[in-house]
Amino acid sequence: MPALPDDFLVGHDLVSVFQVGWTVLHDDVSMYAAERLIGVLTGLRCGDRETQMGLNALRIAITKHWRAGAPWRARDALDVIAILDMPAWAALLGLIDECPVIHAGLGASRNSRTLAVSASAFEFISENTQIATARDFMQSLPEILLP
User: Fold this and answer.
1) Quick check: helix, strand or coil at residue 24?
2) Band (52; pLDDT cuts 50, 70, 90)
């Protein structure tokens, strides 16, 4: 993405620029991550009955809230993911949020050598490369969550 000219905001309404950015985060991160998670949950099977019931409840809750355009309202139901992979759970909480972020758990869930991640370790999404990283993570989620 090319750098913006120094006088970019002189010719553009700051509120409109913010609204465009917020829409991109909503559509390309939160809604995309929720939609991808729904697809993953549809095919995910777990041998533990209670965990499977939690996964089914999550699929139902996130589908309902995704359809309403607010997948972060299913936040509490995401806890079942922590049973399968704690860093992936933290990453999903960050991505499927009203103000999505890249949590350090995203990288940790893909790197088995990471032993600890701070709960407060996250980055605000401000670049297209971060959106691409979030999408790559969501594509790898089935392999990460396989029990």
Assistant:
1) helix
2) very high
pLDDT of residue 95: 97
**CA 136 to CA 113: how far, in whole Å?**
19
For residues 115 and 129, is the Cβ–Cβ distance under 8 A?
A: no
Q: Is residue 27 part of a domain?
A: yes
Q: List the domain range (segments joined by +) for residue 36.
A: 13-145
Residue 89 resides in a domain: yes
| 109 vs 24: CA distance, rounded Å | 25
Residue 6 in any domain: the answer is no
Cα distances from 128 to residues 36, 45, 121, in angstroms, run: 19, 33, 20
Structural domains in the chain (count): 1
What is the number of other CB atoms lying within 10 angstroms of the CB of residue 76? Answer: 8
Determine whether 31 is exposed, middle or buried from the number of CB atoms within 10 Å of its CB (0-12, 13-18, 19+). middle
In a domain, 102, yes or no: yes
pTM score, whole prediction: 0.85
pLDDT in tens, 65-95: 999 999 999 999 999 999 999 889 999 999 9
